[in-house]
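User: For my dataset I need records formatted as: sequence, then structure tokens, nothing else. Please produce one.
Assistant:
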Amino acid sequence: MAGKLYLCATPIGNMEDITFRVIRTLKEVDLIAAEDTRHSIKLLNHFEIKTPMTSYHEFNKIEKAKYLVEQMQSGVNIALVTDAGTPGISDPGEELVRQCYEAGIEVTSLPGPAACITALTMSGLATRRFCFEAFLPTDKKERSRILEELRTETRTIIIYEAPHRLDKTLAELSEVFGSDRRLTICRELTKRYEEGRQYTFADAVEYYEQNEPKGEFVLVIEGISHNVLEEEARQDWLSISIEEHMAKYEAEGMNSKDAMKQVAKDRGVTKRDIYQYMMNLKDSE
């Protein structure tokens, strides 16, 4: 009988956040795959867990996942833990899960701490719709592409950042989102010096120019409003003439009546206004 993969969420700071179920599972499985065994041994020692460990990290995730899958196929039950939080969120766990599904290995996730959700719920910003970007890519081209996509994101945005890059990232995001956009900056979640403060980007940039960033950061950023997006689109349409606007839709196959209706909607005027304009233009020719 094949073994099973258990994704075990571990504390992101406060040891008391671990669940009874995770402790029991870590004791009962045959092997624990840990992102950093030197870090995880402190957790295991704290809860008197004697289960053997093996390393599973970003630099061995593909080959080691193959080995772990083979072990599970032979009947070994394995728990996966990350340095902090829920495995598979901004860590190599997703590769192991993918290979398990391909091999027909059963996977279950034991819920628990996740910095992104913890920060979102304490942010004071909208929580019904959100997107999670984890750490922004370091590659300039990819980073620029993602930031351009996020510029028009209406959902609340969650981003992780390290203290030594925070100043630069805040300045960059302020350029993308606008200095008056709201965000909540959370640091050292669940730890002694936990903090969550709401700013505009202008205020955040100024604050961290004067105060050295310390701890691990989660940025929870307000999404752009639909009204602002609609106004931006309207201003784009107003940058071209009504004739060009009409010609665009007619070139796409619309008849004149439907084109006038869509042009009026785009420009925030009535269909009669567009009709009258086109008539006046025709009379002047």
